[in-house]
Amino acid sequence: MAERYPRTDKDFLIESIVGLKDVTDRHTLAGFADIPNEILYRRFFQLIDFLQKKQLTNVIKYNGLSDITINSELKNSDLNDAGFYFLQYALGKWESRFHKDQGDTKESEFIEKWYKVFVKNNPDLFF
Fold first, then answer.
1. Which domain of life is it from (predicted)?
2. How far apart, in whole angstroms, are the C-alpha atoms of residue 31 and residue 22?
């Protein structure tokens, strides 16, 4: 089983478009290639859509890419325990791929691969 850090009952922000914009804007100022908003919004929705389809969320927050705005966010309370611990495992990997983005299909393959490893190593979180 993978190491897990305790989950707090307090709500907090996990990911947001504002936060992603802030990080990518600072990287661009530092000389990295700019990441277009279209990619940020697509990747944000792609992650949340994956979580929703795998039943790792407590609610359906966004039904489509058109629902994503500058104010879109994902909070601790939006996730069930499996979703929280999956993001603890995979979010850093997902975020590290922003500058390597290969499109919707290829990026879905990455997150699906990480999910399979996570499920295998954390059977107690799944029925």
1. Bacteria
2. 15
